[in-house]
Amino acid sequence: LGSGAFLPCGANSRKLLFLDLETTGLAGGAGTYAFLVGCGWFDGAQFRLRQFFLSSFGAERALLESVAELAADAACVVTYNGKTFDLPLIETRCVLQRMATPFAVLPHVDMLHPARRLWREDDVECRLTNLERTLCGHTREGDVPGFEIPSRYFHYVRTGDARALDAVLEHNRLDILSLAM
């Protein structure tokens, strides 16, 4: 994106905050935690990425405060399926921590919806990794399957062994980069 590129949220490329969560499950609600919050943004010609990891359930407020601090500088948040999952989950977690949600006042672009409008009729499956492969020509190798992610986190919680989380961090990093592409 060039500095003069049109963006639907009216921001320039340096003000976009690309957001993706890894969670303890897909059910949502009070029992689902966002244990990894990946955020990416343009800083001049560079793309920056920051991942916030929930090392223990007691550290959730600190994680949410860190995300809120980063979001305070954003003009727009960009997600993939964030309208129905990511942002409502963050909002629920903030309510449970008696905090204001950091995204309530930000314009939000959920890239899933335009992707469906543009490519569903062409029989393109609209999962982010599929669009990454189909549109950008990039195929992930050795990516952790999404269904394994919660169990890897729970293994870490039970044992303190974080080795299986390396692949989860990489998966989240690639999701943020794909979203920005």
Characterise the protein shown here.
The chain has 181 residues and is an alpha/beta fold. The protein is 39% helix and 18% strand. It is built from six helices and five strands. It has helices at residues 60-71, 82-96, 112-119, 128-136, 149-159, 166-180; strands at 16-23, 34-43, 46-53, 76-79, 108-110. Strands 3-2-1-4-5 form a five-stranded mixed β-sheet, with helices on both faces. β4 (76-79), α2 and β5 form a beta-alpha-beta unit.
So how many helices? 6
Work out the number of β strands: 5
What integer is the average pLDDT?
87
User: What's the end-to-end separation, in Å?
Assistant: 9 Å
The percent range for helix content is 25-40%
Taken from the alpha-carbon principal axes, the silhouette is globular
List segments where confidence is low: pLDDT < 50 over at least 5 consecutive residues.
1-7
Strand order of the largest sheet: 3-2-1-4-5
- Beta content: 15-25%
Category from helices, strands and their pairing: alpha/beta
Largest sheet: 5 strands, mixed
Strands, helices and their partners?
Elements: E1 16-23, E2 34-43, E3 46-53, H1 60-71, E4 76-79, H2 82-96, E5 108-110, H3 112-119, H4 128-136, H5 149-159, H6 166-180
Parallel strand pairs: 1-4, 4-5
Antiparallel strand pairs: 1-2, 2-3
